[in-house]
Write a structure and sequence with these properties.
Blueprint: E1 26-36, E2 39-48, E3 54-60, H1 65-77, E4 90-93, H2 97-100, H3 102-110, E5 115-117, H4 127-144, H5 150-166, H6 178-184, H7 187-214
Amino acid sequence: MGSGKSLARPAPWDEPFYEIIGADLMWGADWTKLRIGGERWYLLTLIDFYSRTIVEWKILRTVNAGHIKELYCNGLSGLNLPANWPHKPELRVDLGSPNTAHVTKQFFKDIEADLSFARVHRPTDNARTERFYGTIKQEEIYLAGDYQDEETANHEIAKYMNYYCNERPHQSLWNYPPKYVHELNNKTELLNQLKALKIKCWTERKNYWIQKKRN
């Protein structure tokens, strides 16, 4: 007989394990499958949790700890930070072996950067990364099906990454593209711009109908 107490675990979408207030404070890394020449390859990405911009990416036959280190280092090099900069972006990853390897943990300890792990059965802990993969699969990878060769795959993925970061409106970013949000890096200013745009559209629509009635 049960004790009458509920043993249900809180829903996995409750209590996200982060709260991001600016660009380059937290990144997420993960990989997903794609096919090249009939074989399985992997797309490894580094995404900024604030703006959802893809900071770095690479297509690989396999993923190991060295690739995680290289991805993060390439992301850092794009920031042009001093070597002793104390506020390197925290990296959020899952519990895959490349992420939990001693080599990976030691690397982050050596450079004094935070490496954090998503909790089991808590998709919100790495939600930005997972959502991006859902998008690129539907809009690029599944449509391609099987890339002809590595060169073709890199070319087509690069085109999509440019579109995603610089042109594609993102609903969670008030329909701004990720790169714009990343470079502005100011939520208050972003909302002010959005408010001004709404007022402009409302005013133009009002004036249109006023003019229509006069005619």
